[in-house]
Structures
1.
Amino acid sequence: MKTLEQIESRTPISSLPFTITNSGSYYFVKNMTSTGHGVVVQTDHVDIDMCGFKIQGDYDFADKGLYLNGLTNDSIQSVRIHNGRVTGFGYACYAKNVESCVLQ
């Protein structure tokens, strides 16, 4: 019998804020709200499937819904975020020091 990890190897995102520091695939499990940044990506090779869900901010215009935050001397590469909506943030998506990013 296969383990759950063998069947679903992606990491669930079930609350915000959520910071990604490990490469891999992630997926949303529900609509979510945040009083700060939503999802912060700080590493390469990340795929986030929002699964048709949305993230909602609290209308603090300093916050970023999707924050791709590369280091000054080391950019983030190969990030894909797809299949969802972002609303109520100052920036829906803010990408700093990023290469090869796809938003769908």
2.
Amino acid sequence: MVSVNAYLDVGNSRIKVSVGGKPGADLPSETCEWPALTSGSDQTDKALSQSLHSTFSRFGKRKIKRFYLASVVEPARFERLSAALRQLAPQAELVALKVKKRCCRVRTDYAPNQLGIDRFCAVIEAYARAEQHAAIVINCGTAVTVDAVDANGVHQGGVIMPGVLAALKGLENAAPALATPERSNTLQPLSYPNAQFAHSQIGLPLETQSGRVAGMRLLFGAGIEQAILALKAALADDNTAVMISGGDAAKIHELLDPQLKVRVEPNLVLSGLIRIARARR
């Protein structure tokens, strides 16, 4: 049996996995949700192990040589994941990737410990897919990040805002009477006449649920558009590519002005992770 590497994009809401894949838009990947984590809970650890086993089994029988991880979770949760991976493949080495000042033709002026590895991976992959032209990359997960890289491969920085679910949970915590809707319904199109884009034709919501969803559509549509325009102005490059990726990418993409020419690009973080791992060889 041939040994292969496995790659894990470890986010706060879910874990995205690829086994033996090559970076790019057609990278095969699978996703598993984090189980509810309770400190010291054997049942939770078992659920995590079962979820990972099920996820990896979808790639067929493979002998894992090395796990490469790009993780943004807190140390306690990372240790639980590490233990579950050791159970899955005791022979495999675990490598937690870190941000470097230079990698894969990209340079950042951030202090490495101040830039999330997920953002670094996404910028590296976006720059590669833009064929070394300037790029703006939007990553939609627990947080929404918007980063810019210029044509010389210099990461110019970016902005961070709450993700859809985080924003709704924050609202619920501050105002408990406003119940958070199910994640799958958070940004569904509203049933208002002619409401093609929430930020331009929002209608007049007459009840709490519609008002909350309409507000979220305005917040994310307008907020991300303004971030794109600000970063485009900073880059001052007419050939700038704009890409969006992450769990909520498709829903948020619908809210953005088509004239901005934002394109949905799957697996930016996971593909960038693979590029960084290969650069270590």
3.
Amino acid sequence: MNNIPYKKFHLEFFYELNRMLKVGNIMYSIRKYPKDQVIFLSGSRCQHVGIVTKGEVKIEHLTEAGTRILIRQLKQYDIFGEILLFSPESLYPYDIVAKTNCEVLFISKENLLNILSQNVTILQKYLQHIAESYHQLNKLVKLKSQKTLRHKIAFYFLYYEHLTNNQLN
């Protein structure tokens, strides 16, 4: 999938959020992590939304055999914890680890709700991000549910053909 609109959205969301943080009386924290530092372990409670401001973060699953499976890689302005924060069971299902030296901005649920209620633009962008995350997850589930490599490749091509046709119309 073409990630340029998605990245542009994250950048616009971050700049709008940053503007609100500067003018408003809203608490947040910025933490620095060295490469390979665990930010959150699987099973930790999600109490903040995190935004990568510098460096890269990876979301990993540690299998019973001790192998690490990369679930997702986050780059500058990418967000994590945004859905878990509002879930009744707000526990991280995976480890969140610094892939490189990085910096993460954290905003609590209460402060995020305050920001979202004050700024319709940020609220719309946040909801757009949640919708896009849901779409990405559905696409991943469909891809993973394909039984053979041939079916996975066919799914990939059909999906991108559909995407290309929709962009042209």
4.
Amino acid sequence: MPSIGVSRDEPRRPDVVIGDRYGTSCAPLLPDLVEEIMSSLGYSIGRNKPYAGGFITEHYGNPASGLHTVQIELNRAVYMDERHRERGPRFAQVAADFATLADALAKIPFGDLGPFQAAAE
């Protein structure tokens, strides 16, 4: 996501914005874990503003059916020089931090998320 909004008067956006359609697209465990891990790694966190989740999050997130979606937006200023569209000095660290996050998310037992729906065969 861009580091600032349309208005230059808007303050800098958080480093990470977690979108869960205001709690409707996934079990609370998912955005809570994302926030816990990313904030422990030093990122500032926002929830659902300015991004609550787009089409996929809205249309496919159905926790009651075992389908959980969460959108994670990363402020471009964290990993790149927006003006020159080049990798910034923290690029490699940000990639490593997101690998840490992905590893933690992959370790969540299915049962902790609520009902589970197997994929169609």
